[in-house]
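## tool: complex_structure
## caller: assistant
## args:
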Amino acid sequence: MSAPHAEDATRRDFLYIATGAAGAVAAVGVGTVLVSQMGPNAAERAAGAPVEIDISAIEEGQVIVAVWRGKPYFIRHLTDEEVAAAQSAEESGFSDFEAADVRLGAPADGKEGKWTIVAANCTHLGCIPTKVDTGFEGWFCPCHGSKFDVTGRVIKGPAPTNLPLPPYNFASDTTLVIGADKAGA
Amino acid sequence: MSGHSTYQPTTAFGKWFDDRLPLYRLVHDSFVSYPVPRNLNTFYTFGGILMLMLVSQIVTGIVIAMHYTPEATMGFDSVHAMTRDVAYGDTLQDWHAVGASMFFVAVYIHIFRGLYYGSYKAPREILWILGVLIYLLMMATAFMGYVLPWGQMSYWGAQVITSFFSAIPLVGETVREYLLGGYAVGNATLNRFFSLHYLLPFMIAGIVVLHVWSLHVTGQTNPTGVEVKSKQDVIPFTPYATVKDAFALVCFIIVFAYFVFYMPDYLGHADNYIPADPLKTPPHIVPEWYFLPFYAILRAVDFNIGIPFTDIVLIDSKLGGVLAMFSAIAVLFVVPWLDTSEVRSANYRPMYKIFFWLFAANAVFLGYLGSRPAEGIWIPLMKLTTFWYFFHFLIIMPLLGWFEKPLPRPASITDAVLAKHPDGDGSGGGTSQLEGAAAAPQSKG
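## result:
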């Protein structure tokens, strides 16, 4: 009676594998549901639309903080001295060098870039740096000691990268849009 | 639980029940007849104190959760409404908040006791690892609990801690968004932290059961580090250890109560009385005192690690700091294998004893540095103390096993006790005490 015995074993093997496979599929399905719900929900993502900010009242040397997607952004109107200092700064003074021109924005083509628009959360652990005005130094993070220049480039400290530039554009001389690269985009 | 059960049901119902569910037998064997070494000192009472702290935190937590609203615009107000409007609401809130601090006071004493007496050595590695797991869960629970009052320190603490995960290469930002439930710390974050803060204590309780089970399989260590060898070395848990634990517990509760009633905010931060403001970082973010040593280690790494003489960065300073901080906890898991000495107790290890106290002083100093701003002289000091923290575990511990010449150890726990107290349990005395005592080791055992 060896044949039926072998047949039994085969049927049991089949059930093991089939059950195991069904279990694995179920585990992936359950895992997907449980992990996906953790992410930003639809309302949160919808709130990511671009925001318009009136910048007419920001004098040279002033900084305001605007909010987009629940995160703060600095909008800083530089003085001529600050622009000059940022542009002439040595590359060796930065840990993540970028040219100053790349980091400055201008309301219209041909005008000199005098606006710094950067994320206001330190790239280290997310604190909001405080404004300083010593030469071309622009911000100091009180949490862990990172220093940034007036265009948000890291000078010193644990911040690994410069303050990120959000997508932005100038809809007019007095209106800044954060969240989109081109007007109407 | 070594040896067979000595439980004898005394009533007919007791016997009937015992045949069906030997629950009382388990309790009796674990907490009444369970043998403990006769020479346990006060430092061995903190396990019991920690059990009470866990219960205390769960009870007060369940009660204050009934008055709390886990919502970003209402969380702060609901806590402060509770402290003003609910009968004894202020006491309950202080009891829970100070309780967290006291829980950590007790756990640190418990951990350092284990390090001093070599409690992690074979056969107690699993017992130790379970303990480190409990400590990790405690830290997660305490952190998420601290976010719930939704004050400035709550908010910015959450911001800093969750940013650790954005240090992970490539997927870091996505991982962080999934932890927060949004692009920034917000309502979704508060909600899930509340859910997890309620869950984790029960997971801790589960691991505590395993921890105690493991303890009762291997038996307690003791200040001599010599294993139990005979019945003379042990006394029954009840009444001896029970009353000792209870006495220490009462002393601990007096200190606890002093803080709750006379200086409830001493261990907290004034900034947490300001509602969370996502647009304003407090000038000086500090975690709760029990995280300070790790905070100092995090900030000690302010440099990139790369291939020498090139510009290639392998680990940037942010990832480096986070790795160092997590390693500081991870290294505890392998302590049983880092310590190569076969002598358990520091009482018989002259060199380890010195290094132990150096390590303890260094850990306290790390905590102090954690409370200082990351500037000036503090940064090199943070680096030095961080270096020593790892040097102790990774270099000194393995090497001491080879270089240290241990002192002679007593033959048994009873020998050690009698050598210390030549007149035994007080009935002896007079001359030639050692001999006399050895002849009649003890009358109570």
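## assistant note: The longest strand of chain A covers residues 71-77. Chain A has four helices and eleven strands. Handing back to user.
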